[in-house]
Amino acid sequence: MLPDAAEWFSTWFDSPYYHRLYQNRNYAEAREFLSRLLAHLHPKPAAHLLDLACGKGRHSRYLSEQGFDVTGVDLSARSIAAARQFAHAQLHFHVHDMRDPLPYGPFDFVLNLFTSFGYFEHEAENVVALRNAAAALRPGGKLVIDFLNTELAIETLVPYEAKTVDDTEFQLHRHFHNDFIVKEIRFRDEAGQEQYFEERVRALSRERFEEYFRMAGLRLAEVLGDYQLGSFDPATSPRMIFVLKK
């Protein structure tokens, strides 16, 4: 599926300013989470893993370093181009839209991490993406979806933030609109021109996710609530981490 020009992620994720804004993300925390998750899931040494929406492949590389055969896919051609410099016989990267069937696999585990879901304008596309992920799994394989705890995220939304990174001042406005958590991103580029991008994540409740899972033929095994893999508490957990079985 070719991305529509109006789809925010088809332009923002390929912008160098996206990577500038988020360059200071806590990757040490992310690696600790991945290490805990692997210990929790117990993949066999020869397991094949899919990093669905892998970005520049930083987490795919870590998974590969643990000895697994890893495939990373992402819609962003620039991100995949950056990731491919690290590719080797057990680490592969491809440009791919999760709304299209996966020509790679089958996989023992599919990992969709760090809120890389719920971007699409039409809700049915979320179910299509899940069905494609399920189809790429071996029988008995597992899918992990790491999403924000939507209810808590809306309650604690910070409406405005100014953030300066490498001489670029980003003006960030957040609000809830038409079933989406929206972040408006405004800044001036090196030429002094005003730039505007958006991030939009559908405010999916646990109940709505469970409806998606039923439609995709996936069984919910457990829900974790944080990157320490604590149990999910709707009132306090920052994340909803779904572990699903085919």
Descriptive notes:
The chain has 246 residues and is α/β, with parallel strands linked by helices. It folds into two domains: 8-149 and 205-245, Rossmann fold, CATH 3.40.50; 153-199, no CATH class. The chain has helices spanning 8-12, 16-21, 27-41, 58-65, 77-83, 124-135, 150-155, 206-215, and strands spanning 48-52, 69-74, 91-95, 107-112, 137-148, 160-165, 168-177, 180-188, 194-202, 219-224, 239-245. The strands form two sheets. A seven-stranded mixed β-sheet has the order 3-2-1-4-5-11-10, with helices on both faces. Strands 6-7-8-9 form a four-stranded antiparallel β-sheet. The model is unreliable at 1-5 (pLDDT under 50). InterPro entries: Methyltransf_25, SAM-dependent_MTases_sf. This is Class I SAM-dependent methyltransferase.
CATH topology of the largest domain: Rossmann fold
Main β sheet profile? 7 strands, mixed
| Strand tally | 11
The succession of helices and strands, N to C, reads HHHEHEHEEHEHEEEEHEE
CATH class of the largest domain: Alpha Beta
Average of per-residue pLDDT values: 93
Question: Which structural class should the secondary elements be placed in?
Answer: alpha/beta
Strand order of the largest sheet: 3-2-1-4-5-11-10
Low-confidence regions: 1-5
- The level of helicity is 25-40%
Principal-axis shape: globular
What is the CATH superfamily label of the largest domain?
Vaccinia Virus protein VP39
Whole-number total of structural domains = 2
What CATH architecture of the largest domain do you see?
Answer: 3-Layer(aba) Sandwich
Proportion of residues in extended strands:
25-35%
The helix tally amounts to 8
